[in-house]
Amino acid sequence: MERYVFDLPTDRGNIQATVEEAGECYSVLFDGKFAGSMWQDEHRGMQWQTDDDELQPFTWEIAVHLSEAFSRKGFPSLLMGSYPEIVSTEWKTSETLEVRVKTDTDMEVFTTFLKDEVLNLVTFEEHLDLMVKREDDAYFTIIGIN
Question: What is the pTM of this model?
């Protein structure tokens, strides 16, 4: 199941959007609460559609995030959606993405698993270093991609 997690700006600050594949549509949660569903309408040139009032103002921005999901730019959303241990990501440089995981995560197990599995998510060719660390710890592990 595809799952993406990213922040959306609002006039009240950022909200965390979680978009999950649900058959032929996507379920959207805002800060963990169901906000509605979106789908691509084949009769309207595959434009994203929703009947949910709460999603209407965000439809375009969510669609942009989904279109970038498998690119380098959208990789943090895909990474956070794939691994629930990840609490946040932040670009440190153009080639380094800091990945913070929950404080109770076993770093040895998680980083070994991530090294083995992350290439299954990568469809871009550019080099990227993941700097993986617990959210409350300065110690980190570097995982090189490509």
Answer: 0.70
